[in-house]
Amino acid sequence: MLVMKAKNLRKEVNGEPLFESVNFEVHQGEHLALFGKNGSGKTTLLKGLLGQETFDEGVIHRNIPVTHWGWLSASIPADPQKSLKEFVLSGLGEWYKAKENLDQLQKKMGNQPSEEILTSYEAAYNQFIKLGGYDLEVEAEKHLTQLSIDPVLWNTSLHELSGGQKTKAQLAKILIQNPDFILMDEPTNHLDQDTLIWLEDWVKNYPKAILFVSHDRYFLDQTAHAMVELKNDGVKRYPGGYTAFREQKEIERREQERTYKKYKQKKKELEESIRNYHQWFNKAHKDAGQDDFLRSKAKKNVSRLHAKESELERLEKKMGEKPRVEKGLNVSLEGSEFSGRKLAAIENLTFSYGEKEILKDVSLTIQRGDRIAITGPNGAGKSTLLKLLAGKLVPQAGEVRLNPQTRIGYFDQELEMLNRDETLLDNLLSLPDMTQTMARTILGSFMFRRDAVHKNLISLSMGEKCRAAFIKLYFSQANLLVLDEPTNFLDISAKETIEEALMGYPGAMIFVTHDRYLVQKLATRVLYLDKGCLSLVDFDK
User: Fold this and answer.
1) CATH code where residue 377 lies
2) Is 87 or 284 the better-scoring residue by pLDDT?
């Protein structure tokens, strides 16, 4: 069964095409990964399919109405009025409205009871029971428990949750909706190891259609039936997961190189023939003088010359442009000198949010050459620990002591360290002695080229914001990097480049990540944070 069909979709941003000629289908039971570089328009395409964005051209045939679709966003609005549990229940649109109406009438009965309110309450209660009643609330709690979301958090406001908890909340909302078609934008972001394993298994066994964006290589291999690569001139479908996709792309690249090599050789032969015919004609025409017979004979070379020129023209049209190797990220990170041994010490650190104790008597020493990975379940306090180390939060007990020579470069998973009202170029030009040429060269190495340098940071995609945040680290001259999910939202190519840059960084670092590849490549020590305490993990590089 055809679930959805996109035909000739085109989207422009500031008068420039983001993508065009996008044609693809999704059938029931298919799990398709929408793949492409950051800024290629993947999130825009998903939102357009949902009807949250408009396309400049093209049509979408939806055989299943959008009301029966599920949506997991890479970032959800933090509504301070809505708790985690309320957010999950809001996925049951009609039921949720009936529940809100019932609750309001119940309050009115308590304040000013009347025959009219009682009648309205009875009608609202009957409608609520008809739509599933309290059984659906019990089911929502079951899904929250299934995703290991602590009941203490169920009534917590969304904006107080960690990134992983917000993702889990969206997953619980999808579970209770049981939609016929699910769209997910980076569902693995911020998830801990146990939840990642659960999500991989759930997606593999989900019988209905899923279209998702992810840059988690292992997740793609485990869950995708096919990869749909999005470029500015359309999409192409490749069967299998990421590994199969890379293999097919490599075959394509080699074939393009062989074809181009043949083209160059054929072009060279034709150009040489054309030169020869030119020379023969000019000589024959000159030698013929006024002899009509010899002049006629010379014209035969002109016909052959035109034939070769036409053949060359057809060849060039058929070949088109030379296969291009797309420019990727070009990043290096330098650190300031550090002559001491110990950069930082955390001693008996305690921190709570309200009555919930996050860290309890945590101690940690960071020395020169350390590359410490912090792992643990969502909400355990990993980001909080880094914020305390970076001076973004103040400990309620204990202390953070820095060596006077220590310079910290901080990367926040929420990317709040960026001045979002400035353009990328203006942000750099505000630095002392920075010139336009220098700024553009630096931005180019971070894949911000031409007019992209004039983008406001607030308008960037999450992946672009990540790259912009690394520019900030580039100028920090830090000898201690404090990184909270540094590769989240990056496309795989950029992620692998950042991994290489961090491997070559001469300073120390402490980082939080759920990226199994990153831990394997970088960490010299792995610490596990749970229930307020740090413990060393046995780790074999």
Assistant:
1) 3.40.50.300
2) 87
